[in-house]
Amino acid sequence: MSDRLFNVHFTAEGVCVGKLRNEVNLTAVEPFQVNRMLATDEGKFQGGEDTSPTPLEFFLTGLVGCLMTQVRVFAKRLKIDLEDVKVDCRARWEALPDPVGPYQGRPVGFEIDVDVTSSADPARVAELVSAARRGCFVEQTLSQANEIVHSLKVNGQAQPREE
Predict the structure, then answer these.
(1) Conformation bin of residue 36: beta by default, left when phi > 0, alpha when psi is -120 to 50
(2) Helix (H) or strand (E) holding 25
(3) Going along 46-162, which residue ranges are E strands?
(4) pLDDT of residue 161
C-alpha cells in the first residue's frame, strides 16, 4: 500500500510560431484537468520580439507562485491566521562556453525571502513556511537531482538516445 496522497501529472506540447516565440499547450492530467496555452518569447537581446514572458520569467513566477500558494493552503489546513504573505526571489544564472553551442546555462543560485504577517506564534509560522516549502512542487524539483530523459526525431525518424 502506498503512502501517496495524490499524483500530479502535466503534459506540455510546444510549437514555434515566430522568430523565438513559442506556444505551449499545457494539459493538467491529475489531480485536476485543465488545458491552457501559454506563449513564451525572448527579448531583443536574444533575437526575439518580446511578445510574451521569457521561459525564465515563467519559471520564476512558478517558483514564487507555488510557494505563496502552499503557504496559504497549508495555513488554512493548519488553522494559522494569515493576514498577508509576500515572497521575493533573486535568481541568478551564468552563461558558460560550450564546445558546440553558443553557450551553456548554469544556475548560480536562488535567494527567497518570505514575509508573513500573522497574529500566530512566530514558531508556528516558521513551521508553516517550512511545511509549505516541502509541499512546493517547484522548490522540491529544484532542491534535488532529477532524471530528464530526451528523445530526438530528425525528419520524423527516431535517433539513438544519448546516454
Answers:
(1) beta
(2) strand 22-30
(3) 84-96, 104-117, 153-154, 157-158
(4) 83
Q: To 10 degrees, what angle do helices 122-135 and 55-78 make?
A: 130
Over 80: is that where the pLDDT of 58 sits?
Answer: yes
**In contact, 40 and 24? CB cutoff 8 Å:** yes
d(CA 129, CA 74) in angstroms, rounded, equals 9
d(CA 72, CA 132): 8
Q: How confident is the model at residue 146 (pLDDT cuts 50, 70, 90)?
A: very high
Lowest mean pLDDT across 22-36, 60-74, 88-102, 149-163: 149-163
Q: Tell me yes or no: is domain 54-163 CATH 3.40.50.10240.
A: no
Please report, for the chain, the start and end positions of each structural domain, with discontinuous segments joined by +. 1-53, 54-163
Q: Name the pTM for this structure.
A: 0.90
